[in-house]
Design brief:
This protein is α/β, with parallel strands linked by helices and 406 residues long. The protein is built from 13 helices and 14 strands. β1, α2 and β2 form a beta-alpha-beta unit.
C-alpha cells in the first residue's frame, strides 16, 4: 500500500464517520484479479496498467466505493506461456474468489485466457494483448478490450501515413497474429486509400528473434521508400537497437506501432532511434487538456514517472468497472456486461466508449515522429504530432477506413 493510502485509512479511523466514505455494513467488496502475463523488454507496460488501476481504485474507494462496496484487487504473475497465465487465472478465481479478471497478455496465452473467462462466465478486461482476443456479440461475451488492437493501429496509421511522400513500401515483422494483423491492416488500408502504392517485398522473422541484422540488410538492399515494421512490444526495442547500429532510420524511414509510446521511450532513454514514425493511443502531454494534465500530474506524484498508455488503460478499466456496476444497480456479472455495452465516459483523451458489437474501447490514435524535446531531456518524445479520432479509422462493423482528420 502506498503512503497516501495508509495515511487516508489512519485519518478515517480517527475522524468522525461523516468525514469518511460510507461502506455498507458487511458488504462484500468487489474483487478484481489482475494477471501480469507479460514479461520481457516492455516491463513498464504492465507496471503502468497496475499503477493506473490502483490509483483509480483508491480514488473510487475514497469517494465511497461502488454501491456501498469497496473495490479490492489481488495480483498474480503468469510467466510467458499459456499454462502459467491460466494457472494464475484459476488461482484468482478459485482462491481469491475474484469477480473480474484484468490481464496484460503475451502472444501465447490470449486464447486460453479468453476460453477460461467464457467457461467461468467471468468478465475479462484485456489491458493489452500481443495476441488479439475477440469480444462482443457472437464471439466472447465476457471479453472487453481496453487498449487498441494491432488492426486498429494499422488502420489509423494508414489514414495518416498515406499523405506522406512515400510510394514504394516494404513490410517486415513478427511472424505471428500480432505482426500480420498490424501489417495486413496498415497495408490493406493504404491500398484502399492510395491504390497506386507498391509493395516491393516482405520479410518475416520468428516472434522471439534476437538477431535482426540479416533482415535489415535485406530491406536496405531493396531500397524501399518506407518500411512498415510490424513488431509487437517484445521486439520493438530490440529491432530499434539493430536499426540504429545499421543506420536504417537514417537511410530509410520506418514505422512501428508503439515507437512513440512513453513506456518504450522511457525504457530506451536516449538510445531510442530519432525520426521513427510511431502510433499510440495515449500521450501524457497530448491533448493538453485539464483532464490529461490532472491525470498525468497525479500519476507522476504517486509513482515518480510519467504515465504510459498502460496507465491510461488501467485507470479506464477501473472506472468502467465502477460505473458499470453502478448502472447495473448491483454486483451481478451478466448485468455488468450489459451495462458496459455502449457506455461512454470522459477520459484524459476525451470521451471514450465501449462498443456494443465487439466490446472494444474506442480510442484516438496519435501518430508522430520520435524526436528530442527540451522539456524531456531523458527520453525522446513526439514531434510532428497528428491525431485521429476513432470514427475515422474504426470500422462500424463492416465499413472501411475514411480519409480525414478528427
Amino acid at each position: 500500500m502506498r503512503r497516501t493510502a495508509m495515511v487516508f485509512l489512519l485519518v478515517c479511523a480517527a475522524a468522525a464517520p461523516f468525514l469518511c466514505p460510507a461502506f455498507s455494513d458487511g458488504a462484500e467488496p468487489i474483487k478484481v484479479g489482475i494477471i501480469d502475463a507479460y514479461s520481457g523488454s516492455p516491463a513498464r507496460l504492465p507496471a503502468d496498467v497496475l499503477d493506473g488501476f490502483s490509483l483509480a481504485v483508491e480514488k473510487i474507494n475514497g469517494e465511497g466505493g461502488v454501491l456501498g462496496r469497496k473495490i479490492t484487487y489481488a495480483t498474480r504473475v503468469g510467466k510467458p506461456g499459456s499454462a502459467s497465465a491460466l494457472a494464475a487465472a484459476r488461482a484468482l478465481v478459485a482462491e481469491a474468489k475474484v469477480d473480474i479478471l484484468v490481464a496484460t497478455m503475451d502472444r501465447s496465452n490470449g486464447l486460453d485466457l479468453a476460453d477460461f473467462a467464457a467457461k467461468e462466465r467471468i468478465p475479462l478486461f484485456v489491458a493489452f494483448s500481443e495476441r488479439p482476443v475477440a469480444g462482443g456479440e457472437g464471439r466472447n461475451r465476457y471479453i472487453f478490450n481496453m487498449g487498441e488492437s494491432p488492426r486498429m493501429a494499422g488502420a489509423a496509421a494508414a489514414v495518416m501515413l498515406h499523405e506522406k511522400p512515400y510510394e514504394n513500401y516494404w513490410i517486415a515483422g513478427d511472424d505471428d497474429d500480432y505482426g500480420h494483423g498490424l501489417a495486413d491492416s496498415l497495408w490493406g488500408s493504404l491500398r484502399v486509400l492510395e491504390p497506386g502504392f507498391r509493395l516491393l517485398g516482405q520479410t518475416w522473422w520468428k516472434a522471439d528473434e534476437r538477431d535482426f541484422s540479416p533482415f535489415i540488410a535485406q530491406i536496405m538492399a531493396a531500397k524501399p521508400d518506407f518500411v512498415i515494421v510490424a513488431t509487437g512490444p517484445s521486439n520493438n526495442a530490440r529491432f530499434q537497437r539493430a536499426a540504429k547500429t545499421m543506420g536504417l532510420g537514417e537511410k530509410i524511414p520506418f514505422y512501428q506501432h508503439g515507437a512513440n509510446e512513453q513506456s518504450m521511450l522511457a525504457e530506451q532513454g536516449n538510445d531510442a532511434v530519432e525520426g521513427v514514425y510511431g502510433t499510440t493511443s495515449y500521450l501524457f502531454y497530448n491533448p493538453s487538456t485539464v483532464a490529461n494534465k490532472a491525470f498525468s500530474d497525479e500519476f507522476r506524484k504517486n509513482f515518480h514517472r510519467y504515465p504510459g498508455s498502460g496507465a491510461f488503460y488501467g485507470s479506464m478499466t477501473a472506472r468502467f468497472i465502477a460505473e458499470g456496476y453502478r448502472k447495473a444497480g448491483g454486483v451481478d456479472r451478466e448485468k455488468l456486461i450489459s451495462a458496459l455495452e455502449g457506455m461512454r465516459l470522459d477520459s484524459p483523451v476525451g470521451s471514450v466508449a465501449i462498443r456494443s458489437c465487439d466490446h472494444q474501447l474506442e480510442l484516438p490514435i496519435f501518430l508522430s515522429l520520435t524526436g528530442k524535446k527540451s522539456a524531456y531531456p531523458d527520453f525522446l518524445a513526439s514531434v510532428s504530432l497528428q491525431s485521429l479520432g476513432a470514427r475515422y479509422y474504426m470500422a462500424v462493423c463492416e465499413a472501411g477506413p475514411k480519409k480525414g482528420k478528427k
